[in-house]
């Protein structure tokens, strides 16, 4: 059962695009060059006559979704939603198949080129174990990012959510709504940067075609065995046998070696 | 009673080595699949198994070690007994459709629905004589050989995925997962029948025993593998 739901409540109006969160995340998690677990998106300023051109900055990262498509895409369960609501990657179990990466509508995942496994924000478990906040939250000079368990009404995140409950927004892809647990207060921009989740063809084939085929084949063969066993028990022996020069069963990987000499008849044994 | 040799010591070894590896790989492998849309035996099995070995990562490691040992076992067998391996492949893939297809159909009906059903279909219940392997054995042999190669190749791809593969090559890994599952599923379906026929069906006791002793009694050879029996007899007569 779910015990908690850790989440991030963000006042993106407070973000000044200093990118301290991005830097501290990279330092805390040793993310390789060219990759980042979190980001700041910027809205396009409106230069039309009469408009006030301004840019809105939007901090983001994995949204630890309620209906994470990345979990559906992972064959091994290396990506899973933990009891505390955090979507985790078990690096020791991840085979680096990459299925989960296009399955995230937020592009929150990447394949770590050093570890060669999937990587993304995990809310800094090492830091939390030491009683610290996730690196990005800790670092943010304007406190735009607030982190906590939204199932615990005492937490800052839950209180903030409750206070603004009438004007909280989520960035959602209409075609792939993962019910993200990343909440923006009042309003945020940009909101049109998500993409429809892509389930890799191999995984879609595995769940949609291969799995039913395998289960049907195994089911049919199991049923066949049960029928044969039933006949054997009822009639006392394999009924097909009387009428045939047949043979049955010993299908083995073995073979007859040394074809030539092997069959020189063996010594008369009993 | 005269005995006819069917299996060499290395054949017997590789058969049982394969059986043990398959059992362990199947159990650990099923425990490694954990996905809401798959879970062949439900959610609990992978959880329990992972708990037993101290986490999914350890289970993966165990599966990988046994898998590599399995591949090396076969490489070793082929090195020790190349003629046996070649002979096995030749026998397993030698299908004569006119003889084998009716055999397969009749045998299937006889084993499941019975002789009456076969007669009702207007088919004679006599089975055409078979060679070193009958068509059922050949079918399973073919599935095992092809399936085994697919399983080994896709397994190695997955094994090397987080060692050598770069992000743009993951499409191969992703398909390897799918094919691995498919091949194991198909071979396992055949394996159920193989185990029943060889170890549970009583008429096949001599065949089962030969997987330990290496040879079958004349009566059995004549009855079940007539063409092979005659070939062997002729060969023995020539040699004498
Ligand atoms: S944001 Fe993406 S990676 Fe994070 S839980 Fe949601 S779907 Fe998965
Ligand atoms: S790459 Fe993603 S989908 Fe593949 S095993 Fe790792 S976490 Fe699961």
Automatic annotation (TrEMBL), chain A:
<feature type="compositionally biased region" description="Basic and acidic residues">
    <location>
        <begin position="238"/>
        <end position="249"/>
    </location>
</feature>
<dbReference type="Pfam" id="PF12800">
    <property type="entry name" value="Fer4_4"/>
</dbReference>
<feature type="domain" description="4Fe-4S ferredoxin-type">
    <location>
        <begin position="53"/>
        <end position="84"/>
    </location>
</feature>
<keyword id="KW-0408">Iron</keyword>
<dbReference type="InterPro" id="IPR050954">
    <property type="entry name" value="ET_IronSulfur_Cluster-Binding"/>
</dbReference>
<keyword id="KW-0479">Metal-binding</keyword>
<feature type="domain" description="4Fe-4S ferredoxin-type">
    <location>
        <begin position="6"/>
        <end position="35"/>
    </location>
</feature>
<protein>
    <recommendedName>
        <fullName>4Fe-4S ferredoxin-type domain-containing protein</fullName>
    </recommendedName>
</protein>
<dbReference type="Pfam" id="PF13247">
    <property type="entry name" value="Fer4_11"/>
</dbReference>
<feature type="region of interest" description="Disordered">
    <location>
        <begin position="235"/>
        <end position="270"/>
    </location>
</feature>
<dbReference type="GO" id="GO:0051539">
    <property type="term" value="F:4 iron, 4 sulfur cluster binding"/>
</dbReference>
<feature type="domain" description="4Fe-4S ferredoxin-type">
    <location>
        <begin position="85"/>
        <end position="114"/>
    </location>
</feature>
<dbReference type="GO" id="GO:0046872">
    <property type="term" value="F:metal ion binding"/>
</dbReference>
<keyword id="KW-0411">Iron-sulfur</keyword>
<keyword id="KW-0004">4Fe-4S</keyword>
<dbReference type="InterPro" id="IPR017900">
    <property type="entry name" value="4Fe4S_Fe_S_CS"/>
</dbReference>
<dbReference type="InterPro" id="IPR017896">
    <property type="entry name" value="4Fe4S_Fe-S-bd"/>
</dbReference>
Automatic annotation (TrEMBL), chain B:
<dbReference type="GO" id="GO:0009055">
    <property type="term" value="F:electron transfer activity"/>
</dbReference>
<dbReference type="GO" id="GO:0022904">
    <property type="term" value="P:respiratory electron transport chain"/>
</dbReference>
<feature type="transmembrane region" description="Helical">
    <location>
        <begin position="179"/>
        <end position="199"/>
    </location>
</feature>
<dbReference type="Pfam" id="PF01292">
    <property type="entry name" value="Ni_hydr_CYTB"/>
</dbReference>
<feature type="transmembrane region" description="Helical">
    <location>
        <begin position="12"/>
        <end position="33"/>
    </location>
</feature>
<feature type="domain" description="Cytochrome b561 bacterial/Ni-hydrogenase">
    <location>
        <begin position="6"/>
        <end position="214"/>
    </location>
</feature>
<keyword id="KW-1003">Cell membrane</keyword>
<dbReference type="InterPro" id="IPR016174">
    <property type="entry name" value="Di-haem_cyt_TM"/>
</dbReference>
<keyword id="KW-0812">Transmembrane</keyword>
<dbReference type="GO" id="GO:0036397">
    <property type="term" value="F:formate dehydrogenase (quinone) activity"/>
</dbReference>
<dbReference type="InterPro" id="IPR011577">
    <property type="entry name" value="Cyt_b561_bac/Ni-Hgenase"/>
</dbReference>
<feature type="transmembrane region" description="Helical">
    <location>
        <begin position="59"/>
        <end position="80"/>
    </location>
</feature>
<dbReference type="GO" id="GO:0009061">
    <property type="term" value="P:anaerobic respiration"/>
</dbReference>
<protein>
    <submittedName>
        <fullName>Formate dehydrogenase subunit gamma</fullName>
    </submittedName>
</protein>
<dbReference type="GO" id="GO:0009326">
    <property type="term" value="C:formate dehydrogenase complex"/>
</dbReference>
<dbReference type="GO" id="GO:0005886">
    <property type="term" value="C:plasma membrane"/>
</dbReference>
<keyword id="KW-1133">Transmembrane helix</keyword>
<feature type="transmembrane region" description="Helical">
    <location>
        <begin position="143"/>
        <end position="167"/>
    </location>
</feature>
<dbReference type="InterPro" id="IPR051817">
    <property type="entry name" value="FDH_cytochrome_b556_subunit"/>
</dbReference>
<keyword id="KW-0472">Membrane</keyword>
<dbReference type="GO" id="GO:0015944">
    <property type="term" value="P:formate oxidation"/>
</dbReference>
């Amino acid at each position: 059962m779910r015990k908690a739901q850790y989440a991030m409540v963000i006042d993106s109006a407070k973000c000044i695009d200093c990118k301290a969160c991005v830097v501290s995340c990279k330092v805390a998690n040793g993310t390789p060059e060219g990759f980042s677990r979190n980001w700041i998106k910027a809205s396009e300023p409106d230069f039309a006559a009469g408009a006030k051109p301004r840019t809105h900055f939007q901090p983001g990262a994995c949204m630890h979704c309620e209906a994470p498509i990345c979990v559906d895409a992972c064959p091994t369960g290396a990506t899973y939603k933990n009891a505390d609501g955090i979507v985790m990657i078990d690096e020791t179990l991840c085979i680096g198949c990459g299925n989960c990466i296009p399955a995230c509508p937020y592009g929150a995942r990447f394949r770590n080129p050093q570890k060669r496994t999937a990587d993304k924000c995990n809310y800094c478990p090492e830091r939390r174990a030491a009683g610290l906040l996730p690196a990005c939250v800790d670092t943010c000079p304007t406190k735009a990012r607030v982190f906590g368990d939204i199932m615990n009404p005492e937490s800052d995140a839950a209180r903030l959510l409750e206070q603004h409950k009438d004007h909280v927004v989520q960035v959602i892809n209409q075609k792939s709504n993962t019910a993200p647990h990343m909440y923006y207060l009042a309003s945020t921009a940009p909101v049109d940067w998500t993409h429809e989740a892509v389930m890799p063809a191999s995984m879609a084939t595995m769940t949609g075609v291969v799995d039913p085929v395998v289960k049907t084949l195994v089911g049919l063969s199991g049923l066949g065995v049960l029928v044969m066993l039933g006949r054997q028990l009822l009639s006392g022996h394999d009924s097909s046998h009387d009428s045939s020069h047949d043979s049955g069963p010993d299908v083995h990987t073995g073979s007859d070696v040394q074809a030539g000499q092997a069959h020189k008849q063996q010594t008369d044994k009993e | 009673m005269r005995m006819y040799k069917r299996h060499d010591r290395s054949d017997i070894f590789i058969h049982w080595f394969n059986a043990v590896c398959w059992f362990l790989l199947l159990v650990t492998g099923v425990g490694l699949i954990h996905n809401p849309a798959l879970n062949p035996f439900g959610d609990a099995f992978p959880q329990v198994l992972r708990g037993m070995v101290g986490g999914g990562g350890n289970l993966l490691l165990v599966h990988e070690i046994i898998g590599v040992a399995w591949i090396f076992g076969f490489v070793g067998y082929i090195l020790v007994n190349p003629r046996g391996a070649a002979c096995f492949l030749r026998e397993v893939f030698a299908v004569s459709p006119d003889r084998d297809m009716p055999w397969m159909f009749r045998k299937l009906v006889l084993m499941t629905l019975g002789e009456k059903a076969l007669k009702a279909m207007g088919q004679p219940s006599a089975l055409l004589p078979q060679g070193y392997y009958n068509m059922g054995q050949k079918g399973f042999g073919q599935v095992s050989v092809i399936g085994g190669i697919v399983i080994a190749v896709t397994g190695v791809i997955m094994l090397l995925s987080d060692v050598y593969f770069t992000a743009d090559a993951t499409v191969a890994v992703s398909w390897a997962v799918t094919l691995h599952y498919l091949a194991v599923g198909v071979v396992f379906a055949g394996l159920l029948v193989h185990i029943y026929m060889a170890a549970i069906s009583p008429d096949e006791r001599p065949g089962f025993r030969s997987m330990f002793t290496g040879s079958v009694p004349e009566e059995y050879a004549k009855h079940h593998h007539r063409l092979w029996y005659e070939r062997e007899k002729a060969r023995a007569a020539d040699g004498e």
